């Protein structure tokens, strides 16, 4: 049974790949059926039809052969084949008595037209063919107009039109389903590519923030150690210890961030939580150890920031303080505030360093508001979460970075409990 079914499947695939061969086989079978039917005549009295009761004329055999041969081109020229077979069938009804079943070819041609055109065309062509052949059979036939042979012509041509239209509708339905499936697959692939691009951009921002922050601290502490190495070795050792701690922290964060790129499939959950406002004190202490006085005012009691928003707030403060340490100059002080305003959290970082001319020159950008790559990265990070960020010089000197982040998580954004700490005290 398995061998037989596989053989049928191979034959079907071969015929589907060679439609002309299939049409030729169909034409031959139709010719055989018409010739066999032309030998069948009505039985005596009320008996069934008997084979060999009549013999077809040579002209009828010629018409049957011509109509069958026309079916070979039924896919390439459906309308022309229908016109030829219908005309030869009408000629058979007009000239021959009794007529041979040449109309079989017309039925197949009409089915082909109905299955390969639209419904209005099927209705028009079908009604014209049905009416013309039925009228020819009723008017020119030797049997009464109400005989079953005449109504059989009407029934078979109508059935061919209906069957062809049904097949065409099913093909259109299947094609629509296949197109929707392909479109959905393309949409999934595009969404996957978009998510990959967004994830790469997020990782690039994290890498920039981590490297810029820790390298700036290492640079400062290494300079302090070199300056006091001879006169105050204890202070030099303390500065080198800070260098070691900053470099170890940088390596750990880089390992966690870059490790996401090495995962197969879905990334595994990190063993340590992502940095957020809960560890803001530790971040500020690193800058204080580097010689930058920082004051923190946090009035964020009860805020439960989503994970992405909490990380963005931490990175904005980290990058802003890094810029203060790099560009504000000696004797600069910084202030950090985190407050809740309605449905948003506002992060502000101020410093009293050098004026806007020196700051914009140091960041490598002529526009105070645009800043260097660090400010661009902060703005892109905040904007991606639906917030806004402004940065620019303060009146009288210094610089100001102000970020507004939504407190409510967007659709699909996870939340972390207790990510913002503080009750309005200054630290």
Share of helix among residues? 55-70%
Overall mean pLDDT: 77
Quaternary structure state of the chains depicted: single chain
Structural class: alpha+beta
Strand content: 5-15%
The radius of gyration is 43 Å
Order of helices and strands: HHEEHHHHHHHEHEEHHEEE
* Spatial order of strands in the largest sheet: 6-7-5-4-3-8
Give a verbal description of the structure.
The chain is of the alpha+beta class. The protein contains 12 helices and 8 strands. The protein has helices spanning 2-17, 19-38, 58-70, 78-95, 103-116, 119-140, 148-228, 233-259, 280-289, 307-327, 356-363, 373-384, and strands at residues 40-41, 50-51, 294-299, 334-341, 344-351, 388-393, 399-406, 425-426. The strands form 2 sheets. Strands 6-7-5-4-3-8 form a 6-stranded mixed sheet, covered by helices on one side. A two-stranded antiparallel ribbon has the order 1-2. Residues 360-372 and 409-427 have low confidence and may be disordered.
Give a brief description.
This protein has 12 helices and 8 strands.
Keywords:
427 residues, two-stranded antiparallel sheet, 8 strands, alpha+beta, 6-stranded mixed beta sheet
SSE layout:
Elements: H1 2-17, H2 19-38, E1 40-41, E2 50-51, H3 58-70, H4 78-95, H5 103-116, H6 119-140, H7 148-228, H8 233-259, H9 280-289, E3 294-299, H10 307-327, E4 334-341, E5 344-351, H11 356-363, H12 373-384, E6 388-393, E7 399-406, E8 425-426
Parallel strand pairs: 3-4
Antiparallel strand pairs: 1-2, 3-8, 4-5, 5-7, 6-7
